[in-house]
């Protein structure tokens, strides 16, 4: 159920990278959401001009709070304002949750493969956090492609052994010292090495820029994964 527009107050800002920030809002009456869903954020200027953008929720609801992680887009009027200018204590309007297909429920038992490109990590991190908070022991594997080490969102959480999530980070521009893989875009070989084989019949979630999503989805199908188990969400 999408619901109606409701006012939400910004109560916390957390920088994630030089270009991404997590925004924590307290809505008036949030109905709850599932990991992988998104919501619309509406901004209204003093002159009445409005702008609406959709953003994925970054975590389960906690104490009535809703989190979004926003990546600043060059010349993006909404993302730039949210990342740089919206002060704690300010109000926006939210409508959601939206989406019932690109979701993971804690009652599911199938192994999960998460494939993220850039800020496409956001809804997938919501799934990881939901898994952790629910106490689920479903096997998760995350393959996360970023340009450079400085572009890793949720750096302090990824790879936490306590999570039980096998995490692989790939770099497309610059690699950290000691990396055995040269910088390159995600490939069939990466998915074969770090993902699940088709025999495990995993649920696959891919999120990122359109080209990234199409490449990863084609590679999984080429590996023999059931296309009905591959769910995608793209932007750009």
CATH class bucket of the largest domain: Alpha Beta
What's the CATH architecture name of the largest domain? 3-Layer(aba) Sandwich
* Unreliable stretches covering 5 or more consecutive residues: none
How many domains would you count in the coordinates? 2
Assigned CATH superfamily of the largest domain: Nucleotide-binding domain of ferredoxin-NADP reductase (FNR) module
How much is the average pLDDT? 95
The description of the largest β-sheet is: 6 strands, antiparallel
Number of strands: 11
Run of helices and strands: EEEEEHEEHEEHEHE
Strand content is: 25-35%
Task: Give the spatial strand order of the biggest sheet.
Answer: 4-3-6-1-2-5
- Decide which structural class fits the backbone: alpha/beta
Domain FAD-binding FR-type: 3-104
Cofactor: FAD
InterPro entries: Cbr1-like_FAD-bd_dom (IPR008333), FAD-bd_FR_type (IPR017927), Flavoprot_Pyr_Nucl_cyt_Rdtase (IPR001709), FNR_nucleotide-bd (IPR039261), MRET (IPR050415), OxRdtase_FAD/NAD-bd (IPR001433), Riboflavin_synthase-like_b-brl (IPR017938)
Protein name: Ferredoxin-NADP reductase
Can you characterise this structure?
- This protein is an alpha/beta fold.
- It folds into two domains: 6-98, Translation factors (Elongation Factor Tu (Ef-tu), domain 3, Beta Barrel), CATH 2.40.30.10; 112-235, 3-Layer(aba) Sandwich (Rossmann fold), CATH 3.40.50.80.
- The chain is built from four helices and eleven strands; from the N terminus they run βββββαββαββαβαβ.
- The protein has helices at residues 77-84, 121-134, 188-194, 210-223; strands at 6-15, 20-27, 38-44, 50-56, 66-71, 91-98, 112-117, 140-146, 165-171, 203-209, 230-235.
- The strands form two sheets. A six-stranded antiparallel sheet has the order 4-3-6-1-2-5, with helices on one face.
- Helix 4 (210-223) links the parallel strand 10 (203-209) and strand 11 (230-235).
- The longest helix is centred in the middle third of the chain and has 14 residues, at 121-134.
- The radius of gyration is 18 Å and the shape is globular.
- 37% of the residues are buried.
- The mean pLDDT is 95.
């Amino acid at each position: 159920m999408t619901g109606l527009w409701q006012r939400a107050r910004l109560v916390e800002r957390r920088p994630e990278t030089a270009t991404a920030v997590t925004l924590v809002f307290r809505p008036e009456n949030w109905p709850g959401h599932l990991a992988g869903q998104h919501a619309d954020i509406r901004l209204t200027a003093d002159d009445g001009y409005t702008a609406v953008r959709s953003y994925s929720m970054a975590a389960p609801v906690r104490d009535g709070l809703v989190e979004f992680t926003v990546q600043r887009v060059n010349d993006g009027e909404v993302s730039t304002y949210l990342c740089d200018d919206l002060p704690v204590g300010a109000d926006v309007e939210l409508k959601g949750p939206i989406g019932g297909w690109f979701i993971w429920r804690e009652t599911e038992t199938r192994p999960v493969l998460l494939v993220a490109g850039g800020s496409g990590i956001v809804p997938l991190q919501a799934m990881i956090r939901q898994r952790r908070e629910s106490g689920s022991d479903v096997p998760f594997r995350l393959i996360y492609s970023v340009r450079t080490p400085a572009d890793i969102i949720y750096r302090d959480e990824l790879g936490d052994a306590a999570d039980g999530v096998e995490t692989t980070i790939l770099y497309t521009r610059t690699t950290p010292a000691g990396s055995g893989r040269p910088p390159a875009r995600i490939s069939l070989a990466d998915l074969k090495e770090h993902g699940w084989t088709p025999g495990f019949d995993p649920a696959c979630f891919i999120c990122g820029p359109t080209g990234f999503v199409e490449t990863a989805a084609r590679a999984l199908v080429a590996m023999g994964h059931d296309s009905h188990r591959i769910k995608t969400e793209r932007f750009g």
